[in-house]
Write a structure and sequence with these properties.
Length: about 350
Amino acid sequence: MNIPLISYLSEHGTLDDVFPFQLDSNVLLKAYRAMLMTRHIDERMITLQRQGAISFALSSLGEECCSVASAAALESGDWIYPQYREAGIMFWRGFTAQEYVDHMFGNANDLNLGRQMPNHFGSRRLNVVTCSSPIGTKIPHAAGCAYAMKLQKEPTVAVCYFGEGATSEGDFHAGVNFAAVRKCPAIFFCRNNGYAISTPTNRQFASEGIAPKGIGYGIHTHRVDGNDFFAVYAVTKKAREQCLNGEGPILIEAMTYRLGAHSTSDDPTLYRKPEEVQKWEQKDPVKRMRKYLESKKLWNVSLEEQEQKNISEAVTTAINQAKETKPPPLHSLVENVYFEVPEPLQEQYEELKRFFPKE
């Protein structure tokens, strides 16, 4: 099955004339800044984990374009179900460095009050549902959300992000099939970065990538260069229009690569060769975007240095404040699951309080 790869931006930053949209320079600059923030804050969080300041960290190094470009093509009312490499969506939608770092520390200012692992962000204000550690579980959730939108005739879509490894889970097939049968306005965005932790794609499935699976379920399917901002934007924009026209759901397979480790618990040198990584470094989405902006006189060395300085200072300030912020209230351990705290859980809480007399 020969499925074409949609791409508009060359590795040298040259945009093809057939790109079907006219993007305002403010959109392009906002997107580039969001990708820079995502990359920088990822690096700082990994350092903090190595220092023992936080427990865990994941990086989206090399995949920043997938989240930021697709977010730019969506509307604020659309619901997003991210995986843990979609931090760029949060920054595009207005999440601050402070909010992100507080979450990574799991302190009292964390929106999740420390109940989630680091990199498992979410925000009701931004219509971003909190990440789930079990892979693939949010795919049926997004399908159900989209079905509700359809029933209520809302002009919005639900977008679910996941890696290609999630398509080996039953949730993928159940969620996509349900959405396909019900014609739900859902976009299933798969970042095919080549590995499910250490398992390469050729050890996961025999199909030629993920796109054939969407075709098998009878839905519109697009394969796109996930390191090309313009291609990801265009495909997501088209997918959203298709959903609102009653043609959903849509499957997008974004071909990208995880340049870093899966997480701070992983050593990628054990399962892939340096030559493979070096090859993909030439396709770095941030560098490609910068080359384009520079060619259009929208960016230069001076602006780059100033932006990097601004981001570094903002993240440093956020880290220092997060370190001084208290942990979440002890009682938050037993809240927000039941309408009223059950007696057995209350008894456990009272027992726990003996070890925290200052609470």
